[in-house]
Design a protein that fits this description.
Helix content of chain B: 55-70%
Structural class of chain B: mainly alpha
Oligomer: heterodimer
Distance between the termini of chain A: 64 Å
Radius of gyration of chain A: 21 Å
Radius of gyration of chain B: 33 Å
Order of helices and strands of chain B: HHHHHH
Number of helices of chain B: 6
Strand order of the largest sheet of chain A: 5-4-3-6-7
Largest interface: A-B, 20 and 20 residues
Helix content of chain A: 40-55%
Largest sheet of chain A: 5 strands, mixed
Order of helices and strands of chain A: HEEEHEHEHEEH
Strand content of chain B: under 5%
Distance between the termini of chain B: 75 Å
């Protein structure tokens, strides 16, 4: 009779423990992007290396990656070899968004570490970054043939993320 | 030093300390815009330093976003439109006051459910508890009465 009451605090404790376990194991940096499933915001930015501009519309009909990077970004340096390797395999075009960077430094950075990008667009004041919900560099978007964002990677693209998430998704979208 | 001289020196000293304050640039051209900016951004989370509000943050992105909000205020956008602008880009996470919707029902209602559970458990517990009885024998009762009387 009395023992039943002892179970109430125990049940409450278990419920609380489960919530805390879920909460503590989540990465607070992983903010789910409301942009996944929505069309990639339009923009028109000058290119880094060539004359002319770039707009996401130019990529219609292709599955492509938009990678936000900057020469001042330390994590981009970590991610860079993965992108260079991906570019060599010619799986999908990679477009760089050079975020709040200085042009000479950006060019220097690409010359030194290799250039995996089909082209880089220059987002000098970060305005386009705001439209894409960028809050930390690097970030990478997978955009489908219709121009819809299908995946967002916050932080460096690791070989693991590439193999497990990005490559299968690209293969699926290219069908 | 006469009192006159003292006060003269004092006022010169005070004037000297006050001078830089006069020279400081005004905070913003339009205090009304600034007030609204603070009002809106205090309810928004800085994405970079997640435990800070946008109003208090000096992070680069926070400054950019505040500039963006300032532009929208000047363009005559409502508070709700500005909040929607940010939610469309960064999700509900930017709001310190999450909206009430099915995925957040537990968040909003949880504490009240827990409290209701506690109150129900307490009532049940109190009802079941046997009332305390005065289990004194007549002899003990007499002694107790005697003690009380003797005291007063």
């Amino acid at each position: 009779m009395k023992k039943r009451y002892l179970l109430i605090p125990l049940a409450l404790f278990i419920v609380l423990a489960v919530f805390l376990a879920i909460g503590l194991n989540r990465d607070p940096r992983e903010v789910p992007s409301p942009l996944v499933g929505k069309p990639a915001p339009a923009f028109n930015l000058p290119q880094l290396q060539k004359e002319g501009s770039f707009s996401p519309k130019d990529m219609t009909g292709k599955v492509w990656l938009l990678n936000v990077w900057a020469s001042w970004c330390v994590s981009c340096r970590v991610e860079h070899p993965v992108l260079v390797d991906l570019a060599k395999r010619k799986i999908a075009p990679i477009v760089g968004l050079d975020y709040k960077d200085q042009r000479p430094e950006a060019l220097n950075w690409l010359a030194r570490h290799g250039d995996p990008y089909d082209l880089s667009a220059v987002d000098a004041d970060g305005r386009v970054g705001i439209d894409y919900g960028v809050y930390g560099v690097p970030e990478t978007y997978v955009i489908d043939k219709a121009g819809v964002i299908r995946f967002k990677q916050i932080g460096p693209v690791t070989p693991e993320v590439l193999d497990k998430k990005i490559l299968p998704l690209i293969a699926e979208l290219q069908k | 030093m006469s009192a006159k001289h003292f006060f003269l020196a004092l006022s010169v000293a005070l004037a000297a300390t006050a001078a830089p304050a006069k020279d400081a640039a005004p905070l913003a051209e339009d205090p009304a815009v600034e007030a609204r900016l603070v009002h809106i951004s205090e309810e928004l989370r800085c994405l970079v330093c997640q435990n800070e509000s946008l109003a208090g943050s000096r992070a680069d992105l926070a400054l950019d976003l505040k500039r963006e909000i300032r532009t929208m205020i000047k363009a005559g956008k409502s508070d709700q439109e500005i909040r929607d602008f940010l939610v469309n880009r960064y999700g509900d996470f930017v709001l310190y006051r999450p909206p009430v919707k099915p995925t957040t029902w537990l968040l909003w209602g949880g504490p009240f459910v827990l409290m209701a559970g506690g109150v129900i458990a307490l009532i049940a517990f109190l009802r079941r508890r046997k009332p305390a009885e005065a289990n004194l024998t007549p002899e003990e009762q007499r002694r107790a009465d005697a003690l009380i009387k003797g005291d007063s």
